[in-house]
Amino acid sequence: MRRLPAWLPCLLILLCVACSRPTLPRLAPDATVLAFGDSLTYGTGANERQAYPAVLAGLIGRTVINEGAPGETSAQGRERLAEVLDETRPALVILCLGGNDFLQRLPPGETAANLRAMLEELRRRKIAVLLVGVPQPGLRLTTAPLYAELADEFKLPLEDEALGDILSQRTLKSDTVHPNADGYRVLAEAIRDSLERHGAL
Question: Which residues does the UniProt record annotate as the domain SGNH hydrolase-type esterase (predicted)?
C-alpha cells in the first residue's frame, strides 16, 4: 500500500483552517465603510486626518465615514446605531466599542449584550462587520474575552491584537488609553490587513 506524502496532513490542516476562517464580501470600489465606535474611532489624541478612519480610507481607496463618539459606552452606541446606518447605508461596518464600559467598570455581561444587539441589527440589515477587540485595563493589555465569544457566535472576523499592542507601547500613545498619530496609523494598517485577509479587498 502506498504511503501518503509526509506533507499531506499539514496541507489538509491548513486547508481546514482557511475554510473555517470567516469571510467578508468584496468591497466595490465605490463602497462606503462605516467606522463606528468611541474615542478610539474618533481619533482622540490626534487630528482628524490622523484618526484611523481617515488613514484607512487612503489605504483601501474607499470612503470611510468616521462615526466615533468620545466617551460613548456600548449602551449609548446601541441607541444611535440604527439612525447612523439609515444615514450612511454602509457596505461594511468596523465596530470598535467597549473601552468606556471597561473604564467605568460596567458588568461585562451588559457590554456583551449591547454589542450582541448591535451585531443582530447589522445581521438583520445584511451588513458585513469587522469586529475590533478592545483590551481591558490591567498590567497586561489583553483583549476582553467577550469579543472572541461574539465573533465566534456571529461567525465574524475579529481584529483582536492591534489595540493591545499599540497601547502597550509608549511611543504609540498620546495618553494612557489613546493612540497618537503613529498609533492610529498602525491600527489602520492592521484593519487593512484584516480586511484583505478576510476577502474584503
Answer: 35-186
